[in-house]
Amino acid sequence: MRRADRLFQIIQVLRRSRRPITADAIAGELETSKRTIYRDIATLMAQRVPIRGEAGTGYVLDKGYDLPPLMLTPNEIEAAVLGAQWVAGRADPVLATAARDLIAKIAGTVPERLQPLVLEPASRPRPQWDGPTDTIDVVQLRAHVHAGRKIHLHYRDEQGRDSERTIWPVAIGYLDTVRHLIAWCELRRDFRSFRIDRIRQADFLDDRYPERRAALRARWMATLPRAPHPEGNR
Q1: Bridge partners, 21 (sequence order)
Q2: Alpha-carbon distance 193 to 23, whole Å?
Q3: Mean pLDDT, rounded, of the chain
């Protein structure tokens, strides 16, 4: 790998990591020596790239740093197209349209020699969503997730039992055949996973829940080793 390419890859590794990452880890990913990484980090710092940290403790890239636009690699193109195809076949209509627009933009941006990677990709997801029809407005649901606003649900579990509860939405999970809404449930006072096709009605409230969305999401992520209880199984 050329040194210029390696310097760029180091920035990419640091950019996608949310925690300090050691020179050992960077060297392992880039298949080079730790000493080389130390030298490259020093070079980047001398070029005023805002990297913090030191040998033995790990490095982080300060937020807000960005690189000028660079050409996508063939693997990056194929990864972006594959992800966009998956979204186009499974997400709500607004996101699906955005995914198809993204593929068209990529095709119009890359050089002609790379266009087959977009128009005739080697990797493809299953062609379309074959799960149950959504019973609520998923576009509005996504908006409430982003805004950190409460939702009042009328929910029916797999035994056909109806319940009502107010939730703090965290994320929408896409499985092969169903979509789930992950949320803090005021009734259960815990995180719960609700199958979206079992939501009979959703009242989208103006009230914000009393916690920053990032903090709520972090609390949910901390529970993942013991995945949220599906409401349909209670």
Answers
A1: 59
A2: 39
A3: 86
Residue written as token pair 């996504």: 142
List, for residues 77-136, the tens digit of each pLDDT value.
999 999 999 998 888 889 989 999 999 988 888 888 888 888 888 887 876 666 667 778
Of 228, 220, 211, 192, the closest CA to residue 149 belongs to 211
- Cβ contacts of residue 70 below 8 Å, gap of 6+? 8
Distance separating alpha carbons of residues 80 and 86, to the nearest angstrom: 10
Three-state SS for 77?
helix
56: left (phi > 0), else alpha (psi -120 to 50), else beta?
left
The answer to whether domain 138-233 has CATH 2.30.30 is yes
Helices (H), 33-152: 34-46, 74-90, 93-109, 115-119, 138-147
- CA 175 – CA 169 distance, rounded (Å): 17
What pTM did the predictor assign?
0.66
For the chain, the structural domain boundaries read: 3-61, 77-119, 138-233
Instruction: Give the separation between CA 105 and CA 113, rounded to whole angstroms.
Output: 16
Q: Residue 131 corresponds to which tokens in the numbers above?
A: 């799960």
Tally of CB atoms within 10 A around 203? 12
Q: Which residue blocks in the chain are alpha helix, DSSP H?
A: 3-16, 23-30, 34-46, 74-90, 93-109, 115-119, 138-147, 213-222
Q: Which two tokens stand for residue 28?
A: 């392992």
- Helix ranges (H only) for 110-229 are 115-119, 138-147, 213-222
Task: Indicate the class that CATH gives domain 3-61.
Answer: mainly alpha
